[in-house]
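Hypothesis: this fold can be encoded by more than one sequence.
Test: take the structure tokens below, design a sequence, compare later.
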């Protein structure tokens, strides 16, 4: 969603700001802008639409300023248009600022300021911040910002320029991430470290903190204006593997990176035959006294949870429920100190998942987050954290982070199964051995790439595609349908195969494509008979299965068979690959914006 960059150094700021905004494009946005400052004052250039539109405006403007802030906006308050794009400048031109987050009391503040004669020029919640800063300005911009922050209810990450102090960028944070760095380029500000390549270490602003960023130093302050000592965190090399490395799209690169994403995550926490999570542990007594497990997430992370729910419940022998975070928030739950509530998120910034986590904490549950982005809001806000090691994921449609989430959830399954005495020593060892083999199984499935490319012809030109399966195959069907619809813009639905005849089958007609996911022997015959049912109504069936079961799908029109799997309870990571590739190649045929699908954002920081 919205993204912030800032630069202060010895070189012109525009290339840094525009370059940074382009790196943040993957998060999703509908307008972009920058503000530059020098002794002559503040200049703002902003435009609706893609960064290319902003570049066209900048092309006409020669600005050598070495200090500036930039923003990509994903509209919440006010339509996407030039006047609502950030940066927002205060009425007298004293302050210009960029904002991520939402100001919940903006309407009240707007009324108050208008009554005092302030004239607003946009419909955004953000503009009340620049207006308040100007109102409270007494010659000290930091004091003005601190007084402004006291009035704000909601969340914000702010980059602020003050016309009277062109040698600094002011920063503030509450609830939305904001990072700073100093290196040979100068002072850098960003909401997502992808914005600047080659970062070695970053400073993370915490809630309620402020910072003054200059070319060669940063001052950190608390809400009382007292100096804070802050140490930077070092970034691992892998965290900035941001290039496409020869691939046409990040999505294809990330699909290919899945064997590594899965294996790195699975193996990082294995010490011999022990599973050790540095950020989470339960004694045998604690594990045995658990009464329930909730798995809470959104989108694909929810689909990973839905798949793992079957495996956890089977192996750990506890009631286990996967719940969509936006539903979890508004529903009654039975959470006590022995309830394990697991929150799964690539970004660690998804608003609904964060709110669900806070609810579980308030109700006294034991919270564990499974997160890909280190130090994200969820990672630091839960009792325990397990990091997935997928590396930076750029394509909006998740693939490698989804696989890594499955790896972490399988580890949690083995960890709890052993501690609760539900997995015998032998079965525990077998489970871990199978887990170690999944990277190779994903690699085997990747060999189906050209077959998927050719089969994608089935879907192009269709109106509706149905995905069916049972148990973990159903969770996988849901992920296949989500991948296909979000990047190819084709209508897709996933159904539990046995549910078809309770309504949905009336939609099947001559030529309707049905993708039947059937990787598990225990329900194979049942899904095969569902295939017969849809075939009898004219469906065109593509069966996704293992090689050994392919001969059983004689009724299917096409078969996509992945190499045989060692453990069908753990079939989802390899099974996901052909579904991801089918959606990728369908979207490619249809000329869709694969890495940045319309209306979507990589990190959904609003409710
Ligand atoms: C789909 C996709 C989304 C995310 C969802 C949750 O490909 O990427 O459905 O899975 O928005 O995001 P995180 O995992 O960041 O909480």
């Amino acid at each position: 969603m919205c993204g912030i960059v800032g630069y202060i150094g010895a070189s012109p700021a525009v290339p840094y700001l525009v370059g940074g905004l382009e790196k943040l494009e993957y998060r999703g946005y509908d307008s972009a802008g920058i503000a530059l400052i020098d002794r002559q004052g503040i200049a703002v250039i902003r435009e609706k639409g893609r960064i290319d539109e902003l570049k066209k405006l900048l092309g006409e403007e020669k600005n050598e300023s070495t200090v500036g802030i930039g923003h990509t906006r994903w509209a919440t308050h006010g339509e996407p248009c030039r006047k609502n794009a950030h940066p927002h400048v205060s009425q007298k031109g004293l302050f210009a600022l960029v904002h991520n987050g939402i100001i919940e009391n903006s309407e009240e503040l707007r009324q108050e300021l208008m009554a005092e004669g302030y004239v607003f020029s946009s419909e955004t919640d953000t503009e009340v911040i620049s207006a308040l800063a100007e109102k409270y300005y007494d010659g000290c911009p930091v004091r003005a910002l601190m007084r402004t922050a006291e009035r704000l209810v909601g969340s914000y990450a702010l980059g602020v320029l003050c016309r009277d102090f062109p040698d600094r960028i002011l920063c503030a944070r509450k609830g939305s991430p904001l990072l700073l760095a100093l290196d040979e380029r100068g002072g850098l500000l960003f909401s997502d470290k992808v914005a600047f390549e080659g970062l070695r270490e970053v400073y993370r602003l915490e809630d309620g903190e402020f910072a003054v960023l200059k070319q060669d130093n940063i001052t950190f302050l608390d809400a009382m204006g007292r100096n804070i000592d802050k140490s930077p965190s070092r970034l691992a090399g892998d965290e900035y593997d941001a290039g496409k490395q020869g691939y046409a799209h990040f999505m294809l690169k990330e699909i290919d990176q899945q064997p590594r994403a899965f294996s790195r995550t699975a193996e990082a926490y294995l010490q011999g035959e022990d599973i050790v999570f540095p950020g989470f542990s339960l004694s045998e007594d604690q594990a045995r006294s658990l009464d329930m497990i909730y798995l809470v997430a959104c989108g694909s992370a929810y689909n990973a949870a839905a798949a793992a729910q079957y495996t956890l419940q089977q192996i750990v022998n506890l009631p286990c429920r996967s719940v969509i975070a936006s539903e979890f928030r508004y529903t009654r739950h039975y959470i006590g100190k022995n309830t394990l509530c697991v929150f799964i998120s690539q970004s660690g910034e998804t608003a609904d998942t964060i709110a669900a986590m806070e609810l579980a904490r308030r109700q006294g549950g034991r919270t564990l987050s499974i997160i890909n982005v280190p130090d994200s809001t969820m990672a630091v806000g839960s009792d325990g954290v397990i990091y997935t090691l997928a590396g930076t994921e750029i394509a909006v449609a998740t693939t490698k982070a989804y696989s890594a989430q499955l790896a972490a959830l399988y580890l949690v399954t083995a960890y709890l199964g052993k501690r609760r005495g539900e997995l015998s020593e032998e079965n525990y060892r077998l489970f871990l051995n199978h887990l170690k083999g999944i990277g190779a199984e994903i690699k085997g499935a990747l060999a189906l790439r050209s077959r998927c490319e050719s089969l994608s012809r089935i879907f192009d030109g269709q109106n509706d595609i149905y995905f069916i399966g049972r148990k973990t195959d159903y969770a996988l069907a849901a992920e296949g349908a989500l991948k296909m619809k979000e990047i190819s813009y084709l209508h897709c639905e996933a159904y539990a195969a046995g549910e078809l005849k309770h309504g949905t089958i009336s939609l099947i007609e001559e030529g309707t494509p049905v993708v039947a996911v059937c990787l598990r022997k225990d329900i194979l015959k049942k899904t095969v008979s569902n295939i017969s049912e849809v075939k009898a109504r004219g469906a065109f069936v593509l069966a996704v299965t293992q090689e050994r079961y392919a001969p059983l799908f004689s009724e299917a029109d096409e078969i996509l068979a992945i190499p045989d799997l060692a453990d069908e309870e753990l079939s989802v990571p390899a099974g996901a690959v052909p579904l991801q590739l089918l959606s990728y190649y369908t979207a490619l045929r249809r000329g869709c914006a694969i890495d940045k699908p319309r209306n979507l954002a990589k990190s959904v920081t609003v409710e």
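The CA atoms of residues 262 and 606 lie 29 Å apart. Residues 298-301, 345-347, 350, 353, 397-398, 482, 486, 603-604 surround fructose -6-phosphate (CB under 6 Å).
Hypothesis status: open.
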